[in-house]
Specification:
78% helix
Length: 116
């Protein structure tokens, strides 16, 4: 259940952060109403709470692992919402980032007992 919880929280955090940033972008760069940016700020705040709900107590590890989810999620958002077509390099880069995120967050013992 913990792995499922981690994955769900990362996906929800990605939706909140990427969606929030996209809403701010829409207001600033695409001349949408400024209240859209306000919604974006609220979504970005929700992202912070979702990230804090991760079971790992190490802020740096959670945010580092989330970085890989953010990279892949940003490209997926672009495809779904903006009609972006990723290059092969985009897909390879996102895949590498996700593997790195999985190594960081799913390592036995969460990496906390490593002597390094």
């Amino acid at each position: 259940m913990t792995t499922a919880r981690i994955a769900i929280l990362f996906v929800l955090a990605a939706i909140a952060e990427i969606g929030g940033a996209w809403l701010v972008w829409q207001a600033v760069r695409e001349a949408r109403p400024w209240w859209i940016a306000g919604l974006g700020v609220l979504a970005l705040g929700a992202y912070g709470f979702l990230a804090a709900m991760q079971p790992d107590a190490n802020f740096g590890r959670v945010l580092a692992a989330y970085g890989g989810v953010f990279i892949a999620g940003s490209l997926a958002w672009g495809v779904i919402v903006d009609g972006f077509t990723p290059t092969t390099w985009d897909v390879v880069g996102a895949s590498v980032a996700l593997v790195g995120a999985a190594i960081i967050i799913l390592a036995p013992g969460g990496g906390a007992s490593d002597p390094a």
